[in-house]
Predict the 3D structure of the following.
Amino acid sequence: MKPDDIPFLIRDIKKEMPTHTKNQIVIPYSYSQGLPKNAMELSHSVQNKFLNNYQAKIEEANYSNLLSKNFNKWYLNQNLKHSQSGILNHDSFFNR
């Protein structure tokens, strides 16, 4: 991964990853699917799809020290919201 790829990676992360704050949840979602019955289950499924698509790129950028420590902390905190679903167990990146 080249340093020139980082802005595009960050843009894709912010566009496709579910984001949880104290007051709101932002989940990329198509309204043609109808309203979800459970927002957290939808968030887990979107997060799982996101991790399958982007986790290797994020690990590569992290290994090359191209991501800031603030980004790593934010990314880890956002993913810990999904820890009870078990989707973080398939990757050792979150275990260290």
Remarks:
- The CA atoms of residues 20 and 47 lie 11 Å apart.
- The mean pLDDT is 82.
- The first strand starts at residue 19 and ends at 20.
